[in-house]
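Example record for the data management plan.
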Amino acid sequence: MDNANIKFPAEALFKYPHMFPLDIKIWERFLVDHGPEYISISYDVKAGSGVPIPDGTPENYARMQEILSKYRIDAIGFRNSQIDIIEVKPDAGTIAIGQIVTYVTLYKRDFAPTLPVRGVIVTNRELPDIRYLTETQGFDYYIV
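Corresponding structural encoding:
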């Protein structure tokens, strides 16, 4: 399923695709403070090429392999003037920065958005140097 076209209201949901319990706690705190800034949100959006599927792979396995081998963006927040690619992670560090660089780049390639795209990291604790690193990359960094 292509979750890029499924948009939810920017408010707490009963379930969030692809988010773990600690992620959900962080995400719901973020939504309380920043949810009203968004028109809608998509979750678990696949980006990237995925691994090549060998000829002769049964269709049901090929489809699973296509979905499971792509990168998975936690959330995409749609605003009037921009699109936010959002990574939600406890104790987000340099791995989260790498993920956002990857997701923003692939989202732009795969979806050709007409609005500017910005990377956003949402976490529960500030780690040394991460604010500086996100600022130099032009990303937003939220501690909630």
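Summary line stored alongside the record: The chain has a mean pLDDT of 92.
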